[in-house]
Every structure is written in structure tokens, then in C-alpha cells.
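COURSE: Structural Biology Practicum
ASSIGNMENT: Worksheet 4, Part C
STUDENT ID: 0417
INSTRUCTIONS: Below are two proteins. For each, the amino acid sequence is given first, followed by its C-alpha cell string. Answer the questions at the end about the second protein only.

PROTEIN I
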Amino acid sequence: MKKSTCIPLMVEPRRQISFRCFLSSILLLSAVFFIGSAFIITDYKEKYLSCGSSDNMQNTRSKMCESQSMPQGSESLPKGIVSKNSDLKMRPLWGPMDKKNSKSFTNLLAIAAGIKQKESVNKIVKKFLSSDFVVMLFHYDGVVDDWRDLDWSNRAIHVSAINQTKWWFAKRFLHPDIVAEYAYIFLWDEDLGVENFDVGRYLTIIKEEGLEISQPALDANKSEVHHHLTARDRRSKVHRRTYKMIGRRRCNENSTEPPCTGWVEMMAPVFSSASWRCAWHMIQNDLVHAWGLDFQLGYCVQGDRTKNIGIVDSEYIVHYGLPTLGASVTNKKVAETPNQSAQDTSSSAGPQAASRSNQSDGRTGVRTRSYIELEIFKNRWKKAVREDYCWVDPYQKPAAKKTVEKLIAEDIHRITHRH
């Protein structure tokens, strides 16, 4: 009996120990599971958040790149290597840059020049050289070498094309991206007298007055003056309008359009960089005389044309009005062949008469072509205004304004009746 009662007392503690060990193992495994899960979840979250952050960064970068404006044709290049603008500064072929020529030129003088006006052009250029100007000559007669004896000739840029106008050259060689570095562009004729003109004072005045497009006033006693607005007013430093009777129109303080206000003539215009960018786009590639352009320049003055276009009276010039276009190349050819003309016994007038005849024919042709171009330009302007429904004329009188809907209705009516 004693043995039977002893055995159960020995077995019971062993079962309890086994159960406790089993329970501890389960708890330990559970702890390991939960701790491991926590690490896994944390790692997953980090990876997920990292991935999401990367996507957000990618989206942000994509949006930023979409808004980044790149010049057409340069989209495949990194932005930092793209050089959008240029200039007319000449660079050395080798060695260190010459300090004498390394300074930055801030303005540009471009002149259409023939060799017959060499003396006049020389006087003009000398006025500008001391004021940090790049000088560019457009040789419409093809003569370049005969300018080499002038001390500034090697510093000037020479462009030559036979029988082309100032505006032909400007459209092709003064692209806004090329001249963007220059604050002001002086696009002048060759037949100007500058004895009473100081370019430094002129620049100061147009900056103070906020003139985007301007010209020096004309000395009415010595100049060929075509419009009252450009004649010098001795009583003022700058004027922006005339009060004269022009045709049947009386110009007054309420006038808002050319030729009463907001206008310059085309022999000596001065453009700010911003106004030139606009004006260049308005120059028609095939209309070389640019007649009619002057009446629309007010749309390029970055604001009110009655305020931002002006005539500077205190710095004035003389316009001689020499009819050089259409004669220079013909004259040169006649002068080169005097023997041939002398041998022509059928002509009693000789080479001088032939020269005068050729000059007259050329100048008449230039004048006729100019009027034709004027009508073409006016018609193109009207057509552009009519067809551009998004464009709003800032100078159109309120009573005459048309709504977009009305313009569209008129166009539909016209197309319908055409077919």
C-alpha cells in the first residue's frame, strides 16, 4: 500500500513541469512572431514610403520640367548648355582676350551706308564710339574695302548685299536673339547731320522719359520734314504729339493715333530691346521698304503709345533726304565703263546723260515699289486683325469695338455665301 501511494506523488510534478515548458515555448514563439512581424511591417512601410516618396519626387520633377521653357530644337539638351542669345562682339582667334576689346557694349548703331556718304557716316559713327556702341554697316552698294582707311573700320561689322534696304538687312541680321544684349538699337539712315546731337545725353533723356521708341527731332530749317510731329520744338526737351492740322484732321490733346501722336519716322528710329523684339516680328520678309510699319509701331511700345513714343527736341539732327536708293550700283557701273559709253557714237549725250537717266529710272522704280508695298502691308494688317479672334486692339475706340461672337458670325456668313 505504501508503494501505490508513492508513485502518483512522483509523477504529478513532472507533468506540471512539462506543461509549463510547453506554455513557455508557445509564449516565446509568439513573442518571436510578433517581434518579427513588427520588423517586417516596419521594413515594408519604409520601402513603401520610400517608393511613394520617389514617385512624388518623380512627379514633381516631371511637372517642373514641363514648365521649363526650352528654345525650340534644344529639348534634347541639358538646360545649362543651351545658349539662347548671341551678340555682335568680335572675339580673338587665339591667346588671351584683348582687354581693350573685352568690355561689354551696351547699345547698337546700325546704318545702311553707301560709299558716296562715307564722310557723313564717319561723322555719325564718331559720335557713338565714345558711348560703348557696337557699330554695324549695311553696304547696299557692295563697296566695303574703301572704308578701311577709317580708324574705326576694323572695329565695325560690315555686311554687304547689292541694292538692299536697311529693313532687308535688319530683318536678316538683327534678329532679337542676336541683339538681345543691347539696351537700345539705333537703326539709322546715312544722310543725317549730327552736329547738334549728343548720344550720351540722348540716352539719358529717353531713359528718364520712359521712351521705348523714339527719334531725335529734325531741324526744320535744314531738313526734309515729311510730318509735323518730327519737327523740333525749341520750347521743349521732348514732345509726344503735334497740334497742327494734318489734311482734314485737327490734332489735339485728345488725339490717340498717328500721325498726331504715338509715331516716329523711319530715317532715325531708336528702339529699346523689348520694342525691337516686337517690331522685328512685324517687319515683313518680302516688303523691303517697310512702308506702313511706322504707323503700327505703337503696338510694340510695352504700353500706351501716346506716352512711350516720343521725339527728343534737345538732341536734334538734320535729315538731308538724299535719294540714294536705286542709283548707287547703276552709277558705279556707268563710271567703270566710260570708254564703252564714249565709243557709242549713236548716243550724243554720253555717259553722264546715261547715268542721270539710270538714276531717274531707278529712283522712280523705288518710289513706285514703296507705294505698292504700303498697300500690301495695309491689306495684310487688316486681314490679320480680321482673322485673329483672340487679338484685342488696345487702341480701338469703344464704340467701334466688335465682340468675338460678332466677328465669328461675320466670318461664318462670309464663308457660307462664298460657297
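PROTEIN II
(use this one for the questions)
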Amino acid sequence: MIGGFNGRDPFAVACPSYCLTYRQYYPLLISHQPSQFSHCSGKTDKTQQQQRKTHQWRLFHPHTFSHFHQSQPPKNPSLLAFSFVHKTPKPCPPPSPSQTPQTQRLCCSSSSSVSIELNASTLREICQAHVPEHVLRRVEEVGYVRPTDVQKQALPLLFSGRDCILHAQTGSGKTLAYLLLIFSVINTQRSTVQAVIVVPTRELGTQVTRVARMLAARPMELELEQKSCTVMALLDGGMLKRHKSWLKAEPPTIVVATIKSLCQMLEKKILKLESMKVLIIDEVDFMFNSSKEVSSLRKLLTSYSSLHNRQTIFASASIPQHNRFVHDCIQQKWTKSDVVHVHVNPIQPMPSCLHHRFVICGKNKRHQTLLSLLQSDAPESGIIFVGEQSEKSKKAGNAPPTTSLVDFLRTSYVGCSDIHLLEEDMNFNSRAASLSEVRQGGSYLLVATDIAARGVDLPETTHIYNFDLPRTAVDYLHRAGRTGRKPFSDNRCTVTNVLMSEERFVLQRYENELLFNCEELIL
């Protein structure tokens, strides 16, 4: 076990690639005994009595130094990662001489420890002992050679069997990380469902399925020797009758599903999860915030499968109140008690290559202002985000704002012939066709609602336009994350917000929450 003292956070683990504290992310038994409290704090008896009376507890974060106070101590201290913040903390023990610079160990609440390969320079070096050779070759063929930060930090933990919460920027490689884990544990000779990936939208599910099938493809000579890995897309709007026949004939190895379709199959006992080894919940914060899906998700985590028989992975670029979420995962038994929160670059929630700006205009000049921006920027590929139509507007018989904007651009903007639409009210085939046309290459403009903001990977996108401001800072983060998605690229990408003067304070609030600066643009 290695511990350290970095001057800012006395409880920080001395591991260069990890930005976490063992008291924050691991459930430790915290004593409430006054003798221990006085010994650690070095306070006078009077001060000790006052502090014991008020029971001020602080939650410590290694970067933001944020904390909150509770009037009462935790009811179950063995499950909470709370600690006192002391003026004169006792430093962690020094590293053992037997540990080499290449391998360090994290402080854990349990007796086990996890080795982290800090100096691995390629994905192959990290994965070679775990992932089949044909999968690694496919990974390299499509250009994934160097590991991203989240892959470098998370993969050793994932391969060790730990439950993990992957919390990293959009486009940082979380999907590839959990897919590599899946390929390391599945046995294609068994005709059972061994991995389930739950996604919030059909679009994201289609994308994950495509990547999983690409990685699973075997060379012809191997395909004759062994069974290949099959991947089923069990998504809303799919042909469930065909899926039923497939599941009854020979269950797939991996299932990528939306929660509604998955639970339908589980309730009818067409799909069984007794052999499931890995459960992935992608965009986990969105799933838990959706009133339509949260009850089904809780049921999946606690009733349809047991946390003791599976490895559980949650992934998202945004997990508000993540310390509380880690606690809930343990207390609600969604994950095992030694779950690891891998939080990559928490002081910079969005990619550094993004340039944020805003322009202020009147309500009746928004279309013309957007047109001027497009003519000035001449983007090769961009997404224009539009707010959903209100119920009042629908009842009045008004055209959806997305449709109005597409019609305006098709008649007024001559710089781009390919202008596509993507919104919830479109049928599934039309939505799939729009994304397919966008992915075919060339210049494009996609006018979309927030359905395109979660997980959709369009790496050629260079410009984002918020025609309507998103409702929350989290929505802003995910919209902005549709660009700047090429790992290790320094190409500058732009996020532009079209505002009315009374909306400026909303954008300022997002700037404060997400730690970015937005520059005013004068047209």
C-alpha cells in the first residue's frame, strides 16, 4: 500500500494518474470516539467539546476542497466515506521499498489492493494479458493505439474485477474501456447472455452495437475454429418478435439495450441474466434522472440480477453530487462496497480544445443571427441544438422550432446542401436515416434536440451552435461534448450560444459550474 502527502490534500493517494482520496472513494470505518478525535485534531478540551456537540462533518475533495456540514453524524459510518479535516493530519505511511516506480498500489478499505500500470504507453501493454489477440488487432486497425487517461486509469481496475464508476469528459474513451473489459471476461463457447449494456437512447445503442460488433469480428481462420461473439441490439422501436426468436434459439453473448425493451424481455422471462458477468449502465446520471426509467433501472440492479454475481460499471461525463452517488451505490446495493470512482480531470469537465463564445440578439432576429454566424464560420460540419417545442405551442398548432429552422436554412443558407433533422418526434427509421447520412462524410449541418446530446459520436463535428440555451449546465456539457471528440487532437472546436440579453446570467451560471470562459462575439 502506498500513501502520500502532496501539500494540498493530506489524504491524497500518491499516484500520479489518480486524482482521488481513499477516504472519499472507499467506505472506511470512521470512529466517533472523542479520544481519537482529540488526538487527531490537537484541540483544547473546550474546543473538542464544542465540536463534538455540533458534529460538524466535512466531505473533502482533493481539487475543489469543497465540503458540507451535517448536523448529525452518519447513521452507518461503515458505509460512508466521510472524514474530519484536521489542521495537523497524520501522514500516510511511506511507500514500501519493494514497490517499483512502474507499479503502485491504491489504498483500499478492503485487504486487497489493485496494481496500476502507470507507465504503460499503449493499449496493448495494458490489455495483452486479458483481451483476446484478435480484439486487440481490431482495436489497433481502427487507430486506437495510445490509451486515453480514463483507459489508462480504469482498465487495470476493471480487469481486476472491481465495480467502477467511470467519470470522465465526453469523447474520452469510456465506451472502449468497458467494451475491452467485456471481451476480457466473456466465453464465446457458452450460449448465454454474459454482458448487458444499458443505454438511454436508440441512437447511442446503435452506435455502441456497431463498435462492439466491429471489435468482435474474427478473422476467417479463427471463425472456423471457434464460435464468434454475437451482439444483439435490443432497442426501442426494434423488431421484438425477431429478437424473441433469436433469444430462444441461441442467446447472444452481449446485449445492448434500452431499459424499456430489456425489462419487457425480462418480465416475460424470454431473457435471463443468471449467467451475466458484466452489467454496464451508460449515461448513468441521465438514466437515474429520468422518471420513466428509474424504477426499471433500480429493478434491474437489485431484482433481476445480483450484485455479487456480476461486475457493475457506471459511466458518464457528468455525475452531479458524485460523492453522494458513490454512497448511494453502496447503500442501495447497486454496486459492491469496494466500488471505485475513477474521476478523470475533475478540474476541467470539458475538453480544453473547445472555444466558447456567445452573441446577443433580439427575439425576432435569432434566425438571421444564426445565418450570419454560419456564413462567417463556414463550418464543414456542425450541430445546431434547438429546444423542444412546448405543450402550449403544440396546442396552438405551431410548427416545431426545429422544422421552422431547417426550412429557413434550406432556403437561406447556400454554404451547405446537407441539412439534416434529428428529434424525438421522428420515427425510428427516419432518425436512423438522418444519422446514417451524417456519418457518410462530407460537410453537414444537423439540426437536433437534446436527443443528439448524449453519447452520439460524430468525431468530424467542429462547431456546436446552441440556438436555444440548454436547460441545465449538465445539458450544456453534453451538447458541447459532441465536438472535440478526437483523442490527442489539438484542433480547435467552437461552441457558440445565441442569446437574448435576459439569458446572459444563465450562461454565466453555466460558466461558473463548468469552469469555462465564454467570450462575447459582436456581429
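ANSWER KEY EXCERPT:
Q1: Residues 1-116 have pLDDT under 50 and may be disordered.
Q2: The chain has three domains: 1-119, 121-343, 354-520.
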